[in-house]
Amino acid sequence: MNIKRIVFVGVGGQGNLLSSRVLGEAALLAGMPVNVSEVHGMAQRGGVVESAVVLGGALSSIVSDGEADVLIGFEPSETLRALGKCSKETTVITNVTPLMPFTVAVGKGVYPDIKEALKLIQEKVKRLIALNADALAEEAGSAMAVNIVMLGALAQSNTVPITADQMKEALKMNIKQKLWDTNLKAFDLGFEAASKV
Length: 197
Known about the structure:
Blueprint: E1 4-11, H1 16-29, E2 34-40, E3 48-55, E4 70-73, H2 76-81, E5 91-95, H3 102-105, H4 114-124, E6 127-131, H5 133-140, H6 146-157, H7 164-174, H8 180-195
Parallel strand pairs: 1-4, 4-5, 5-6
Antiparallel strand pairs: 1-3, 2-3
C-alpha cells in the first residue's frame, strides 16, 4: 500500500495523543502496518502538542516538511504554524475555534485573523475542511470531544484507507463505556460536517 502520513497538531488538553492512538489502533484493525510518534511540548500548560501517524510500512514515523498527506489541526493557529508540513497535495482538516494563548490573553501577543489564516491555508494545499469542532463537541454533549469530532471529519474525508467503523471500534477500545454515547455522537457530527464542506 502507499504510505500515508497524518499529522495532528493542537495544544495540551485537546486530546491530540488520544486521537493519534485511536487512528493507529484503527490501522492495526484494518491490517496495515503503522508507526505513531508524539511530541509533547509544554502540553500541561496549554503548549503545543504534535503527533504523527504513518501508515503503510514506512521505516520512520517522522514527517518532514512538505510530506504530510493530511494535517489535522485542533486549534487554527496551530494548524497555521504546522503548514510547513504540507504540500500542494495535502488535505487539511482544521477546527476554526481559537484557544487563545496566554501571551494573547495578557496583551503581549496578537492572535492571527481566522479568515486570513484559512485563506493562507487554502492557497497552499489541495483541500481544506474547516469546521467549528468546539460547537459540534458541545452539541454532542462534551466540550472535551473536539478531538473525536475531528476524527469523524477525517473518516469522512476519504484520505486514509481506514473505515469509519474501524475508527469507531478503535475509539471504543480507548474510552470509558460511560462516555461512549457522547463520543459516538461527536464522531458522527464531525463526519456529517465534513461531508458538507
